[in-house]
Amino acid sequence: MSQSMVSDRASQRAFFGVSALLFAASAAVTIVWCASMSAMGEMPMPGGWTMSMAWMRMCGQTWTGAAASFIGMWVAMMVAMMLPSFTPMLWRYRQAVGRTGETVETGLDRLTALVGAGYFFVWALLGVAAFALGVTLAALEMQLPALARAVPIASAVVVLIAGALQFTAWKAHHLACCRATPGRGCMLQALPADARTAWRHGLRLGLHCSTCCAGLTAILLAMGVMDLRVMVAVTAAITVERLAPVGERVARVIGAVVVVVGLVLIVRAMRTG
After folding, report:
1. Which residues cross the membrane (predicted)?
2. From the CB of residue 146, how many other CB atoms can be counted at a distance below 10 Å?
3. Nearest-CA neighbor of 77 among 224, 252, 177?
4. Where are the alpha helices (DSSP H) in the chain?
5. 45 - beta bridge partners?
6. Which of 236, 192, 198 is nearest to 121 (CA)?
7. For the chain, how many structural domains are there in total?
8. Among 58, 79, 130, 160, which is least packed by CB within 10 angstroms?
9. Low-confidence ranges of the chain (pLDDT < 50)
10. What is the pLDDT of residue 184?
11. What angle do CA 243, 241, 172 make, to 5 degrees?
């Protein structure tokens, strides 16, 4: 076995080993965060549902501090949820940079980290938007009982729409880009080995990925951003549709399941409303 092959295998083992450690650490932080939020309890609301304390300030906490805490936890949660499907995309990037023929071994890890930073920067920005939206809606729901009573059916409708999105060409296009499927104009070609390209590539992946996951992320926000069961289900759906050999077909199957769940939730909300 040549020295080059040994080095490549060692690099591959190190890459996937670090990825596994990052996943374990982010998953542990997410579990601890969810447990701490659950220990604080939830606020009962008109309509028979409860509001998560994630949208509230703690005693003595400023809104800036609350936002920073939420975004930090949001990023940790996104790392845990997205890393299983993002790791193969990072590995394809390393291979694409290697195809340039440049000597980049010493800087390849740094470039890979920049791609990851750009990717999760997009998710962090979405966390800012999610916090602003969540806090605004929470304030309105506490002031307007009629709006609060409409939340269960509104959440169910969000789930139903998210399931329907799984069948669209828009979803198929962005899923193909995340999967780097040939023939869709998104296949990853050889890339220059420089920091600017790495950062921009990470941003591009983050935009495609967040757009592709818009419906599934909406389910997470609608059903309970602190609910570990919903997190696990959404993570599994995202991972399977990205990594399965027939991803588009899997996405449609997931969509059918989500539509059924949405309809069941609508019926339940109407009966209890």
Report:
1. 66-91, 111-140, 146-165, 205-226, 250-270
2. 9
3. 224
4. 3-39, 63-98, 105-143, 145-149, 151-165, 169-179, 195-212, 214-223, 228-243, 247-272
5. 49
6. 198
7. 1
8. 58
9. 1, 103-104, 181-185, 187
10. 41
11. 115
Q: What is the pTM of this model?
A: 0.88
Q: Which residues contact 5 (CB under 8 A, 6 or more apart)?
A: none
The count of residues in the chain is 273
In the numeric block, the tokens 């939830």 are attached to 42
The vertex-64 CA angle with 59 and 68, nearest 5°, equals 95
- Per-residue burial over 222-240, b = 16 or more CB atoms within 10 Å of its CB, e = otherwise: bbbbbeeebbebbbebbbb
Rg, the chain, Cα only: 21
Q: Which tens digit of pLDDT belongs to each residue from 223-239?
A: 888 788 999 999 999 99
Structure token pair of residue 88: 């193969």
Read off the pLDDT of residues 71-127 as tens digits, 9 standing for 90 and up: 999 999 999 999 999 998 898 888 778 655 554 455 888 999 999 999 999 999 999
